[in-house]
Amino acid sequence: MSAEALGPPEGKVSAKKAQSARPESRLAMVRRARRINRELAEIYPYAHPELDFRNPFELLVATVLSAQTTDLRVNQTTPALFAAYPTPEDMAAAAPEHLEELIRPTGFFRAKSRSLLGLSKALRDDFGGEVPGRIEDLVTLPGVGRKTANVVLGNAFGVPGITVDTHFGRLVRRWKWTEQEDPEKVEAEICAIFPKSEWTMLSHRVVFHGRRICHSRKPACGACPIAPLCPAYGEGETDPEKAKKLLKYEKGGQPGQRLTPPPDYPGLPAPPLGAPAP
Length: 278
What we know:
By secondary structure, this protein is mainly α. The protein is built from 13 helices and no strands. Helix content is 49%, strand content 0%.
């Protein structure tokens, strides 16, 4: 990342903050939100789902496992899981105790095992062993809500959707795109701001930014390329040199979360389970 990209001149941010003293109109917010999306597209042209998968079933299972843990831990766990149970029919017939042991590293393994067994049996019995491509069907599966359904639809079927995870909800509230806390209400309000064609990639870009720069407790404001557009600038570290030390994953020169990242990913692949980080 260049020095220019790591943060705006202090005067530019200060001027923006001074102009923002009066309430922002709906039209101005929408324009600012769309500009942030354009800027994020330039910062993260390689944004992608950070779960390893080869087909809709693997993405569905990985997304269910990602609750209450990191995508990295899921990616380190799923190779052995999918080697043992590559299809819904295989997983539906799994011994619960063996399935639990395989997914234990992701936490909450008993509850997740029940969900995986339930959704696999439903896929086998109700959907011919195939993951359905409609949100109305996906949300009937055990352990699958709108967030998981939108991940699968957007990334395995090409059906646009907003994925409201912890990072996404935190950033869109920080940027004053919405004040809603309920994920479904957040989804509805953000969908109204952007064209449908942008929904899936917007979700990836916002999550990438939240994981790499705009952290929850200490955002790297001084290393943030969209600082002039952010009403929350100053909540985190504004000194550029100190802020650079807060950057994570490829922005901080560290491995990403995928063991098999896409070819255009500029960072390092994550290490397998039990292997030292490169």
